[in-house]
Write a structure and sequence with these properties.
The chain has 145 residues and is an alpha/beta fold. It is built from two helices and eight strands; from the N terminus they run αββββββββα. Strand 1 and strand 2 form a beta hairpin. It is globular, with a radius of gyration of 17 Å.
Length: 145
């Protein structure tokens, strides 16, 4: 009886935390508001505990974290082509996300977790020119909002 009461108390204590977590949907599109081969939205501001769900609205896309563009403590992810993937945000920081087949076309996005700013060297990872310029645009838009 005492163990059941303790378990119930623990559930009640953590329930408000999980109730505050949001699920944010990001579409993977062939054409969107900002052009061809895009994530929509391409900048997400979220909190630790939130979940981002990448939805393959159009075919031939995936979502994966960009190597060297993850905060320490956040696990990397790699979705399969044409498959939905859910990512729980566990650490404050900036996350660079790419669609591997369309990286050269600039199909990238940024997730800001908490009040983090892009750390120095965030865009130093090796990537195609179009991807880098799109990341720069997204970061400038995110800073302006």
């Amino acid at each position: 009886m005492k163990l059941t009461s303790l378990a119930l108390a623990a559930l009640v204590a953590i329930a408000p935390l999980s109730a505050l977590a949001e699920t944010i949907e990001v579409k993977m599109l062939n054409k969107g508001e900002t052009g061809s081969m895009v994530f929509e939205p391409r900048f997400v501001s979220a909190q630790v505990g939130d979940t981002v769900v990448f939805v393959p609205t159009d075919k031939s896309h995936n979502a994966e974290s960009m190597k060297d563009m993850l905060p320490e403590g956040q696990e990397g992810f790699k979705g399969k082509i044409n498959k939905e993937i859910s990512v729980e945000l566990t650490t404050e920081g900036m996350i660079g996300v790419i669609c591997k087949p369309h990286l050269a076309m600039g199909m990238v996005m940024v997730i800001q977790v908490g009040d983090a700013e892009a750390p120095e060297g965030f865009l130093d990872a090796k990537m195609p020119k179009k991807a880098k310029s799109t990341f720069e645009e997204i970061l400038a838009e995110g800073a302006a909002s």
